[in-house]
């Protein structure tokens, strides 16, 4: 019995040490890989324009701040916050605040976001069948995001242009079930954001996220039937890190670089038609 007790205590101590070590790794606030005076930060992004923006920062601004940026691109919105929470990333940049809040509520992530946002990609309604919203037929099929945060944004675009009404529903959290008035009897076809551009052959029109529209070669200014206003827009993309790391000097440097005039100039030069615009 004595031998068993000693072994049990030893195993419990080892387990406690292991768990404590895991806790330290999660909560220490340490970020990046340091090599002399340079810290490499791994940032998870969407492909376009997010990855493009952080490659610009890495190639033109990071070295002077003692940073190197390793960009890891994702096409699935559900993955970057999980990877950040698990410690696989030091930061991510692919989402707006309503989406982050829905993720925190649904998944329990402990994440911190920086303000102000960096850029905005105006949502737009695209179509291969009509050029003017007045020509949208009764009973038209509309492709729309299937994630709650972006579905509300798409519905708000339609509501702001008098196509539907959301009544008293909060447009940030509204879903297709909150549509109060639908005079054209629109049928909503829900799809993942990344696949919405591919629905244009099968729908009368689809509301498509800015980055996915860019990936499909669409311009909100030139191809959009309806385009959301940037005024008082809550959907600016934000830099996100794990709780406890936001005050790390290297993370602070990264945030400062995203707010630099050089980044604003890069956005305006790279997307001069307004498909991507600085958030501030």
Automatic annotation (TrEMBL):
Membrane topology: Lipid-anchor
Signal peptide residue numbers: 1-25
Gene3D superfamilies xref list: Periplasmic binding protein-like II
Residues passing through the membrane, by range: none
CDD domains referenced in this protein's UniProt entry, alphabetically: PBP2_lipoprotein_Tp32 (cd13597)
UniProt keyword list: Lipoprotein, Membrane, Palmitate, Signal
Main location group: membrane
Matches recorded under InterPro entries: Lipoprotein_NlpA (IPR004872)
Subcellular location: Membrane
PANTHER family named among the record's database cross-references: D-METHIONINE-BINDING LIPOPROTEIN METQ, METHIONINE-BINDING LIPOPROTEIN METQ
Similarity annotation: Belongs to the nlpA lipoprotein family.
Name of the protein described by the UniProt record: Lipoprotein
Species assigned in the record: Brevibacterium gallinarum
């Amino acid at each position: 019995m004595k031998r068993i007790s000693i072994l049990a205590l030893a195993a419990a101590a080892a387990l406690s040490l292991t768990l404590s070590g895991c806790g330290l790794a999660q909560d220490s606030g340490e970020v990046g890989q340091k090599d002399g005076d340079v810290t490499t930060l791994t940032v998870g992004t969407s492909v376009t324009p997010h990855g493009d923006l952080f490659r610009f920062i890495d190639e033109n601004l990071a070295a002077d701040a003692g940073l190197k940026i390793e960009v890891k691109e994702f096409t699935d919105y559900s993955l970057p916050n999980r990877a950040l929470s698990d410690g696989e990333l030091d930061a991510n940049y692919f989402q707006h605040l309503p989406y982050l809040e829905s993720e925190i509520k649904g998944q329990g992530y402990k994440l911190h976001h920086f303000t102000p946002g960096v850029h905005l990609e105006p949502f737009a309604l695209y179509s291969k069948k009509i050029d003017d919203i007045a020509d949208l037929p009764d009973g038209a099929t509309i492709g729309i995001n299937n994630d709650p945060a972006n579905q509300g944004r798409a519905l708000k675009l339609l509501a702001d242009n008098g196509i539907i009404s959301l009544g008293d529903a909060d447009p940030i959290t509204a879903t297709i079930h909150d549509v109060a008035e639908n005079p054209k009897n629109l049928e909503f076809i829900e799809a993942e954001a990344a696949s919405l551009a591919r629905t244009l052959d099968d729908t009368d029109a689809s509301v498509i996220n800015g980055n996915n529209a860019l990936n499909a070669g669409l311009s909100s200014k030139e191809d959009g039937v309806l385009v959301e206003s940037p005024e008082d827009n809550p959907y600016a993309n934000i830099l996100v890190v794990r709780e406890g790391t936001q005050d790390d000097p290297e993370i602070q440097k990264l945030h400062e670089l995203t707010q630099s005039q050089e980044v604003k100039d890069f956005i305006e030069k790279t997307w001069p038609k307004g498909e991507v615009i600085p958030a501030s």
